[in-house]
Amino acid sequence: MSIRTAYFIVAVAIFVLALIVIVFYYYRLSQKSSQKNWERLLKRLTAVDRSSIAEVALDIIDESGQQRKDEASAVLEPSEIWKLVGGLKGLEALEANCAVLVDLAFYVQQWYPEALAVAEQLRLSAREIEWHVGRLRSAQQTGKLESAFQMYAQPAVATYYLMTRRVLALYEDGNLAMLADLRNAL
Amino acid sequence: MQLTGLDLLFWAAGLGAHLILLSVLLIRRRFKVFPIFTAFIIANVGRTVALYFVRLLGTRAGYFYTFWSLGILDTVLQLAVVYEMYSLTFRPLGVWARDLRGTFIWLVTVSIAVAAGLTWLAAPHARLWMQVVIIKGSFFSSACMSELFVGMMVLAVKAGLPWKTHVARISQGLGVYSIIDVLIEAGHSYLGLERDSPAYTALSHFRMTAYLLCVAFWIVMLWRNAPDSRRLPENMRGQLTQLQNMVNSDLEKIRARQK
Are B163 and B171 contacting, i.e. CB atoms less than 8 angstroms apart? Predict the structure, then answer.
């Protein structure tokens, strides 16, 4: 057997093994997602300071979600935003909640195909916030966190604020029993 | 060319299994949701019949060219089935999910690069250059296919997009078969394509067994109905359309604020 053939056999073995491990890992994850119910999902939500979130969000949008154009808008300094959202840790809590909202959207898409459009919008919003927080993490690693914070953090918080309001509205309309728990968590 | 009893058995089983699967797709009306997958199964029925007659009545060279020509068609159709499964999973609202568009390009690029790297490493035992091309081409396509199915599973879980029941079953079947096929093609590369050798025959029978199990899995799973969806309360339904418009509008504003 030539050296090249030996390399080929080892590489194929590693390749197939890696695929099998990935398949098992993600299959188990998907099974867990399918078996989740509302109560379990809600338990995963991390409590956040809603008044701080609202303050950061309402600095750039109004209650209806319109972008503010008055002189008193967008006045928060990066340091204030940093403090209000609890720094990177606070944003990571939002990111964690977004992961739960993605699961909520998954649940709705799986069981209520009629609600597909709303669920997809929620999922996309959550993924957008995850993207913002990911950029902040990169900025932290390159030492540019301060300048990047306002650029990514405030839109992320505003998106989170609007999205959670939509989620609450969705369940209020559905008269679902877990609304009180959801309101506390979000 | 003579066929052994086992060869005939595999051929008959393959044809029978594909015909049963085709009947399931037609009777259960799955062909409407999976037109490309249905075309793939029809092509497989045609391929099995054509190869049987060419092997029985034709020359060795005729069989060789028919086998590999139809093999290329089979690979193209498998890629089309991958597209169909991706489309049914990642276009929940009729357009490709915008958070995944970049990831698709990354996934396809990495899949091709990894498959090309492995293919480059392969040093097939073959006498003719055409055999080398066939072995390498088959290995490349099976490696790519397995990566695309595994990638699809990873993306769906990470992005939080549920696999519809039958999409999941078709993908799981083809995905597992593709991974097994990588091993078989690696075996062909190591052992060569000498058609009368015991190793080649054993690998061919192993491939046919794996594929027959895959088709049997599809028959059972596609016959079964997906779990029933739950109905939304009427008041919730009315609000959903309104909510969708509001969220759309909100996000546009947030994005505009970023620019």
Answer: yes
Q: How many residues does chain A have?
A: 186
Residue closest to A167 by CA, chosen among B239, B154, B195: B239
Residue type for A129, please?
I
End-to-end CA distance of chain A, in Å?
62
Per the prediction, chain A carries an average pLDDT of 78
Please enumerate, as own/partner, the contacts of B2-9 that have beta carbons within 8 Å and a separation of 24 or more: B3/B55, B3/B56, B6/B205
Q: What is the pTM of this model?
A: 0.75
Helices (H), A36-153: 38-43, 50-58, 78-85, 87-111, 116-141, 145-148
Contacts of A52 (CB under 8 A, 6+ apart): A84, A85, A86
Paired with A67 in beta bridges are A61
d(CA A131, CA B224): 39
Low pLDDT (below 70) residues in chain A: 33-39, 42, 114-115, 150, 169-186
Length of chain B: 259
Tell me the one-letter amino acid at B130: M
Closest-CA residue in chain B for A173? B236
Rounded Cα distance, A74 and B25, in Å: 58
Rounded to whole angstroms, the Cα distance separating B47 from B195 reads 19
Calpha distance A59→A57 (Å, rounded): 5
SS3 A61: strand
- In a mutagenesis test of the A interface, which of B250, B251, B259 is the best target, namely the one with the most A β-carbons within 10 Å? B250
Mutating which of B154, B155, B247 best tests the A interface, going by the most A Cβ atoms within 10 A?
A: B247
B99:A124 CB<8 A: yes
Question: Which residues, in sequence order, are CB contacts of A9 under 8 Å at separation 6+?
Answer: B186, B190
- What letter represents residue B163's amino acid? W
CA distances from B249 to A29, A74, B14, B116 (A): 33, 20, 53, 44
In this complex, the residue of B146, B229, B250 whose CB is nearest that of residue A112 is B229
The enclosing H or E element of B47 equals helix B35-57
Among A11, A60, A124, beta carbon nearest to B257: A60
Confidence of residue B236 (pLDDT cuts 50, 70, 90): very low
CB B258 within 8 A of CB A155: yes
